[in-house]
Amino acid sequence: MNQISFWCLSLLLTVVIAAEETPITRIAFGSCANQSAPQPIWDAINKFDPQLFIWLGDNIYGDIRRPLTVIGKERTFGPWRNSPRFVPSSEEEMKLRYAKAKANPGYSRIQRKAKVIGTWDDHDYGLNDAGKEFDRKVINQKLMLDFLNEPLDSPRRKQAGVYASYTYGPPNRKVKVIVLDTRYHRDPLRSDGSILGDTQWDWLENELSGPRSEITIIGSSVQVISNLSATTGPLFYMESWGRFPKERKRLFKLIADTKRDGVIFISGDVHFGEITRYDCSVGYPLYDVTSSGLVQSVEKVVPRPLRSIVRLLFWYTPSTMRVINDNCKFKSCTYGIILNLIPFTFSSDKLWKDLLTSQDTLEIRDVNGDTVLGTNVSLSELQPGGSNSLKDTTTKGKSQRYCTLEIELPGTTRYRLAVLIYFTIAVLAMAILGLIIGAVLAITACVYKCKVD
Ligand SMILES: *[C@@H]1O[C@H](CO)[C@@H](O)[C@H](O)[C@H]1NC(C)=O
Ligand SMILES: *[C@@H]1O[C@H](CO)[C@@H](O)[C@H](O)[C@H]1NC(C)=O
Ligand SMILES: *[C@@H]1O[C@H](CO)[C@@H](O)[C@H](O)[C@H]1NC(C)=O
User: Fold this and answer.
1) Which pairing describes strands 86-87 and 64-65: parallel, antiparallel, or unpaired?
2) With bands split at pLDDT 50, 70 and 90, how would you rate the model's confidence at 317?
3) Which is nearest to 346 in space by CA: 18, 59, 148, 51?
4) Are residues 365 and 342 in contact, defined by beta-carbon separation less than 8 angstroms?
5) Is the shortest distance between the CB of 363 and ligand 3 below 6 Å?
6) pTM
7) Residue 240: nearest ligand to its CA?
8) Exposed (0-12), middle (13-18) or buried (19+): which is 363, by Cβ within 10 Å?
9) Does the C-beta of 348 come closer than 6 Å to ligand 3?
10) Where do the TM regions start and end (predicted)?
11) What pLDDT score does 300 carry?
């Protein structure tokens, strides 16, 4: 072959390859899917017809949850507990659970129609709240990658951890998706140590400094922006980047240092959906869209009549980062209803027509496919000094509130949930005590009266 025809051929190939790269405009993602429970959410996701589906962890519930026992030989709850609430399953059991998840008819349809990628969280990693100390991580990594149909020769099968990156779309319409592994290398909770570990940090730095993409989605199993623990403690704490403040700062600094714009976080884990935003970290607003509860949800664990109380508590718990707007189905702007949640629509076809002005929609949808939370974001907003970013944070504009950390709230606001709960418990305890005293007094009076009679 002479040079010119070779050149023509390679040009032809390039054209063919470029023509094949359709822009990605519909992405769905989710987390927390109990393989043993019905999964009607796939109908809504199929209806949305995503080109890409991203698993954000707890893709199966792999570990064994033991009953909540307060008394007896094996106590799993309370300060006096002596045995673990969660224990890992055998390899065979993990395989069975993955097989069940993979065979779900709704998910099978997604697998045929869309690209499916993802990472894991604690329950599919193999143990509730586990980190780098967990000894079954090597074998469980293999099972998880089998579930995702990772090719046998993929480098991802040789590395320590399931982190990965993908780039989709033609030039100028590139979407890069990075999925992090927040388990394999994570130091113990409360250590303020590392989440990603050195190797993954080096890799991430490389990925973020690499070729430009118009949008960079970073998937983390646990929430990045919201630090709910700061307002739910000391009642209870959640896992999140907020619990590792040094590591979180490092992440924001890396994004700023690599001058990566268009970064959006997606996360799962918490069994409810919310959209949060932090404006004072990298020079433009960092959004974190949490889609959690493909199957598991906060409200599912309480009886139906009590669900409005759960919603009320959500609304009452302060949050400085949550995006509150008119699109929310509930006043709290969280969504944790039974069997509900989300595909997440990210970007409309419109987006690619005019990258700089069009609005891109971040949405959380329910089991019927209806939007329950949403916000419009334009790409120009996700750039340093872009519209509605730095500008707003320096004026007393509406976005001002997205700069205050939860821990900077005045104590009376920050701890109002704990105060309410403790107060309620105290009142109930006093009422019960009062009843008991009343009863005792009445009985003694009666006994005395009977004797006198
Ligand atoms: C998963 O669903 C099954 C069937 O509904 C239920 O028995 C089990 O407790 C659930 N697992 C978790 C972790 O909620
Ligand atoms: C998040 O909240 C925890 C618990 O109150 C606190 O220790 C931590 O410093 C907070 N992190 C950030 C980034 O504010
Ligand atoms: C986004 O903006 C469009 C046009 O202004 C509006 O119709 C739509 O409801 C908005 N969506 C959300 C989720 O805010």
Assistant:
1) antiparallel
2) very high
3) 51
4) yes
5) yes
6) 0.89
7) 2
8) buried
9) no
10) 419-448
11) 80
CB half-sphere exposure, 365, CA atoms < 13 A? 22
* Angstrom distance (rounded) from CA 431 to CA 437: 10
Helix (H), strand (E) at residue 372 = strand 371-378
Q: Tell me if 248 CB under 6 Å of ligand 2.
A: yes
Q: Judge if the beta carbon of residue 100 lies within 6 A of ligand 1.
A: no
In testing the pocket of ligand 3, which one of 349, 359, 366, 378 has its CB within 8 Å of the most ligand atoms? 359
E strand residue ranges, 68-145: 86-87, 115-119
What mean pLDDT do residues 100-115 have?
A: 96
Residue type present at position 64 = I
Return the structure tokens found at 240.
């999140």
The response to whether residue 375 sits with its C-beta less than 6 Å from ligand 3 reads yes
Other C-beta atoms lying within 10 Å of the C-beta of residue 306: 11
Residue closest via CA to ligand 3's atom 7 equals 376
Better-predicted residue by pLDDT, 369 or 280:
280
Q: Which helix (H) or strand (E) segment is 102 a member of?
A: helix 91-103
CB neighbours of 128 closer than 8 A, spacing ≥ 6? 63, 65, 85, 86, 122
Q: What is the rounded distance in angstroms from the CA atom of residue 33 to the CA atom of residue 254?
A: 32
Question: H or E element: which one contains 223?
Answer: none
Q: Rounded to 5 degrees, what angle do the CA atoms 331, 333, 334 make?
A: 120
The closest residue, in CA terms, to atom 5 on ligand 1 is 37
Residue with tokens 């949403």: 374
Atom of ligand 1 nearest to the CA of 34: 1
59 token code pair: 């893709």
Q: Whose CA is nearest to atom 12 of ligand 3?
A: 375
- 75: buried, middle or exposed (CB in 10 Å: 19+, 13-18, 0-12)? middle
Q: Which of 257, 321, 265 minimizes the C-alpha distance to 283?
A: 257
98 — pLDDT class (breaks 50, 70, 90): very high
Ligand sitting nearest the alpha carbon of 239? 2
255 and 208 in contact (C-beta within 8 Å)? yes
CATH topology (fold) of 25-61+113-412: Purple Acid Phosphatase; chain A, domain 2 (3.60.21)
Query: How far, in Å, are 25, 106, 120, 370 from residue 50 at the CA level?
Result: 8, 13, 20, 15
What spacing in Å lies between the alpha carbon of 115 and ligand 1's midpoint?
Answer: 28
Q: How far is CA 14 from the centre of its chain?
A: 38
